[in-house]
Structure formats: C-alpha cells, structure tokens
Design brief:
The protein is α+β, with helices and mostly antiparallel strands. Helix content is 46%, strand content 21%. The chain has helices at residues 2-21, 26-37, 74-80, and strands at residues 41-45, 48-49, 52-53, 60-65, 69-71. The chain is elongated.
C-alpha cells in the first residue's frame, strides 16, 4: 500500500510540473504559431538586438529569427517577416 501511495504522489507532482512548464498566455501561443509557420524556432532565452544579448533584459519565450535575433514581442516579430 505504501508503494502505491508514493507512486500516486509522484504522479501528481509530475503532472503539476508538466502543467507549470506549458502554461503560456494565449497571445504567446498565437505568436508561437506565427513563428513556427514562418519557419523559425520558438525558444526561451534573453532577447537580442543586432545579434547581441540585451544586457538588462529578462529571459522570455520568443522567436529566433534568421538565427541571430531572438524576438520576444509579436509586433516586433511582424516587422521581420514579409507581409502576405
């Protein structure tokens, strides 16, 4: 019985961990879809400008454009992609 309880507690803790890692605001999900449909990678890191990290910026989920610019803002990202 103790083994079952430990397994159950571990399972519940694992589910909470997974849920916390995937909890992104709706606008981020839309931005992520735009990024990936444009052929770029979605990742967590500090934003960049002119290929260099912005010193005082915090890590954010964003789009890695052309392998040199990590853009965290959807509107700024739209400036990088050609209009359709």
């Amino acid at each position: 019985m103790k083994t079952y309880n430990l397994f159950f507690i571990g399972f519940v803790v694992g589910l909470f961990f997974i849920a916390s890692c995937t909890n992104q605001p709706k606008q981020d999900i839309e931005f992520k879809q735009m990024c990936q449909s444009a052929g770029y990678e979605w990742m967590l890191m500090k934003p960049t400008q002119n290929g260099k990290f912005i010193k005082d910026a915090r890590e954010c989920w964003g789009c890695m454009v052309e392998g040199i610019e990590h853009v965290c803002d959807k509107e700024k990202f739209q400036q990088f992609i050609p209009p359709r």
